[in-house]
Structures are given as structure tokens and as C-alpha cells.
Design a protein that fits this description.
118 residues; 19% helix; 8 strands; two-stranded antiparallel ribbon
Length: 118
């Protein structure tokens, strides 16, 4: 591990030049008839997009505000478009009022979900 000296003389680990710090592979769970996907949402972002993976969960930026379910609806619409499934195939299992959510995807296996999202 490389160390960097700060202005005040303290030493801290150097940042990872690959940018891989805090990232890991997408973790999916098989359930009867589908797959469960973990999602980390950043509401009120400048644009709506899938931006990567953080701590095993899909990282999604949403332009919608988290008011009256608008961000949850925008999330399901975005996922349906990327997965090429009807929106009725998606359901929010947990995290309706949280940034960390779990989404059930009916009719797709883990391999299909991973290839369509990443």
C-alpha cells in the first residue's frame, strides 16, 4: 500500500488509481420465478442513469424527487427499459422510503439481469 503525506503532515493511504475503491460486482439473488436486485438510489440527480455498482448494489441516479413515490416510479421505469421487460414484471420488495432498495424481477434469471444491466 502506498501512503500520501497531507499538508498537515499526517499520513493516509493513497487513492486507488484504478478507481475501484468501494466497488464490487453486482450481487443478485435467485428466487422462485425471478431474481432480486439490490439498488442504491441517488434522488434529485441532474439526470436519470445507471452509473455503476457500489457495495454489490446497482447505483442509480434519478432526476425525480423522492416525493409521493415519484423516485420509485422513475426507478422501475428505468429498470424496465434497461432489462427490456414490462414494468409489471418489476416490484419493489423493500426500501420504499430508503435509498437502499430491493427490486424483484419476474421472469429473468441472474445471468440475464447481469448482462442486460452491465
Amino acid at each position: 500500500m502506498k501512503w500520501t503525506t497531507t499538508v498537515m503532515g499526517a499520513r493516509r493511504p493513497s487513492p486507488d488509481p484504478s478507481g475501484a475503491a468501494g466497488r464490487s460486482s453486482l450481487q443478485l439473488a435467485d428466487i422462485a420465478g425471478g431474481t432480486v436486485l439490490g439498488v442504491r438510489v441517488i434522488p434529485r440527480a441532474g439526470h436519470t442513469a445507471i452509473t455503476g455498482v457500489r457495495d454489490g448494489a446497482l447505483l442509480v441516479r434519478l432526476a425525480a424527487a423522492p416525493v409521493e413515490g415519484a423516485a420509485n416510479a422513475a426507478l422501475l421505469e428505468l429498470l424496465a427499459a434497461h432489462l427490456r421487460v414490462p414494468i409489471r414484471s418489476l416490484s419493489l420488495l423493500s426500501g420504499g422510503r430508503s435509498r437502499a432498495k430491493r427490486v424483484r424481477i419476474a421472469g429473468l434469471g441472474r445471468a440475464d439481469v447481469a448482462t442486460r444491466l452491465l
